[in-house]
Write a structure and sequence with these properties.
By secondary structure, this protein is of the alpha+beta class. It has a single domain (about 5-140), classed as CBS-domain (Roll), CATH 3.10.580.10. Helices cover about 45% and strands about 20% of the residues. The chain has helices at about 5-10, 25-35, 55-60, 70-75, 90-100, 120-140, and strands at about 15-20, 40-45, 45-50, 105-110, 110-115. The strands form two sheets. The protein has a three-stranded mixed sheet with strand order 1-2-3.
């Protein structure tokens, strides 16, 4: 059964982070530059939350706050849902669906190991199904 670590082994464990004292404007610029929808928020070497596009929309734009004057730590999502490296992908998908989130940091004992997205899970499931289809095709039609 594939796990969160299975996805991290394929995509790598690089995660974009932002300090909780950074401004929302700086965080948004980083997200824009990296073409990503979420940043893990840190305080020193501790993971303290997650900051997403949805946080910008709901807690900054809709609230009429100034992004250059608002600290990420004041509008981040915390506590956040996270997975362990041995969490099954099906469990990750279930958590993401029930909480209506698209990004799930992989954290153990306070250490950040990576981040998986709903797109990563979808790609993993497609790959797994494709392997099953190919196996069944060879089984039914013989190896060519």
């Amino acid at each position: 059964m594939p796990t969160a670590q299975t996805i991290l082994d394929r995509k790598g464990n690089e995660v974009a982070t932002v300090e909780r004292d950074s401004t929302v404007l700086d965080a948004a610029k980083l997200m824009n530059t990296r073409h990503i929808g979420a940043l893990v928020v840190t305080s020193g070497d501790r993971v303290v939350g997650i900051f997403t596009e949805r946080d910008i929309l709901n807690r900054i734009v809709a609230a009429g706050k100034a992004p250059e004057a608002t600290k990420v730590g004041d509008v981040m999502t915390a506590p956040m849902a996270c997975a362990c490296r041995d969490t099954k992908i099906s469990e990750c998908r279930s958590v993401m669906t029930s909480k209506r989130i698209r990004h799930l940091p992989v954290v153990e004992d306070g250490k950040l190991y990576g981040m998986i997205s709903s797109g990563d899970i979808l790609a993993s499931e497609v790959e797994e199904r494709q392997a099953t289809i190919e196996y069944m095709h060879e089984y039914l039609h013989g190896h060519r």
